[in-house]
Design a protein that fits this description.
- 6% of the residues are buried.
- The chain has no helices and 7 strands.
- With 82 residues, it is mostly beta strands.
- The strands form 2 sheets. A 5-stranded antiparallel β-sheet has the order 1-5-4-3-2, with no helix packed on it.
- Helix content is 0%, strand content 32%.
Length: 82
């Protein structure tokens, strides 16, 4: 996932295929492709002005060049490499 400020995010094509999923408080907004099911992006509950975008969905971006960060999913904190 790549972090993007909401004002810098633009969908160039395929927006009509996106489907919204919400749960709990409804603040977070999760978008999936209705055709293939890929998780495209979400608007965060903790900071609605920031989006987390599936880097593989960004045309022209080499996702392998992005820095990796390991996170403990339960505590949501960074994990030190072994």
């Amino acid at each position: 996932m790549a972090t993007v400020p909401r004002e810098h995010f633009r969908i160039s094509r395929g927006e009509d295929a996106l489907r919204l999923y919400r749960w709990n408080s409804g603040v977070a907004q999760h978008y999936f492709c209705a055709t293939c099911g890929i998780y495209v992006y979400h608007r965060r509950r903790s900071n609605p002005e920031v989006l987390s975008v599936n880097a593989c969905c960004i045309d022209g971006l080499d996702y392998r060049a992005l820095p990796l960060r390991q996170v403990d999913g339960k505590s949501r904190s960074a994990v030190s490499p072994p």
